[in-house]
Write a structure and sequence with these properties.
Layout lengths: L17 H11 L6 H20 L3 H25 L9
């Protein structure tokens, strides 16, 4: 059930990477890779995209921005499948 009223509903395409993220998380579930490491890769992809934009390499920038969005979903999915919990001491 949607939380939005009928006149405020919209098509949300921002979560396009979720199906791919679920597959990647399942593949990484029984490995040493942690969600924090995946988040680090997310940051690297973002920096590469910025570099590509500044150097007018727009196709590569678009690819890295899409990849960044997918990796952003992977870290959350990986945390769920590995049941990673942060305590106050970890923060």
């Amino acid at each position: 059930m949607s939380k939005l009223s009928k006149e405020n509903k919209f098509i949300d395409v921002s979560d396009y990477g979720r199906p791919i993220a679920k597959i990647c998380a399942k593949l990484l579930q029984n490995t040493f890779v942690t969600p924090v490491q995946v988040t680090f890769v997310f940051g690297i992809c973002g920096l590469i995209a910025v570099y590509c934009i500044l150097n007018q390499i727009y196709v590569a920038a678009a690819i890295f921005l899409i990849l960044k969005s997918i990796i952003d979903a992977v870290d959350g999915e990986l945390a769920r499948v590995k049941k990673c919990l942060l305590t106050q001491a970890d923060i």
